[in-house]
Amino acid sequence: MIEAFRDSLDRIRILITPTQYFAWQTLLLLSIFSWLMAILAEVLDAATLTVNILSTCSWISLTAAIWWALWRNPVRVAGFSISAWITGAVLCLFLFNPWPPERLRWALAAWPLISTAIRALPSFFRWDLEFKRPKPEVQQELVLILLLNLLLTSWILFYFQVQSWFGRYPSLLVNDFDRSAFVYDFSSDFERIPQGVLLLESAADALEQQLNGIPWPRTERWLLNSEAQVADIAREIPRAALYAPEESLFWKLGAPPPIGAAGGYRLNFRAYWRGPVARENGYYLEKSCQLTPQRRTRPAPPSRPSPSGRSPAVPPVEYETTIVQCDTAVPEPQWIDASAVD
């Protein structure tokens, strides 16, 4: 075990020991030295500028060392050298450090183009920085590489844009992307329940507050004008009811005319999705609320006594109040023809 460890150390020492001063190992050692000095300066509470300068020198030396080493010993995949893309990845880590999500997005998008520039640099400049014109076949190769990397950058940006859409409009996830050649959801952070469910729940709560317990004749008058009443409910629902308020522009709350059911009426709230869909047709979510009269009694008011001094017996007063019961199940999307949505 100890011998194997010593052999590994010897190999590393031989690998990073420069055979001459002008070598990639020299830059690697400078990078390690600058990095250690930056750590020491931070431990000793040196000025932030000093730490940043030492860290920058370490990154620059490391990037140059990797580029030089891979130029001398290229890494090939299927006969194609990917050395420039490895160097480009290290350079992007340096340029976009620190790496919050927004900067990481641009680092990944810039990586193919920066790698292309690194790949093309030796074709235009000699070691003494003298400009040279690449051969026609090299020019064609560079143009092809540039176009392919522009396409790769476009795909990376498109992926992040789609993820941004999913964050702002989570109801898009209701669509089926399994057969899509353009969209692939790598993230499982988004909930696949359309926000129309929250809209329907808010509408059902508003209906219960308005009609629950009121006299049944008032409920019947409300139902006669149900279209306008539902429109009022839709206007009163705040955008804050949705956890992605921007999506409220794509939802429309409505309800078909109530139908008689179980001795009362059934009102079906529908939330229509007017945003982008993966199919030709749109969809809606539906939540049913049952409105039923409930018979109640209350004591009759006391009557005036008769001339004989006796009060006649008055039967209790019967009346009907409204009971509102809405479904608690999570509604499933129902796909419809776009022409069927008013």
TrEMBL record:
Residues 291-318 are annotated as: Disordered. It comes from the Bacteria. Keywords: Membrane, Transmembrane, Transmembrane helix. The chain crosses the membrane at residues 21-41, 47-70, 77-97, 103-121, 142-162. This is DUF5357 family protein.
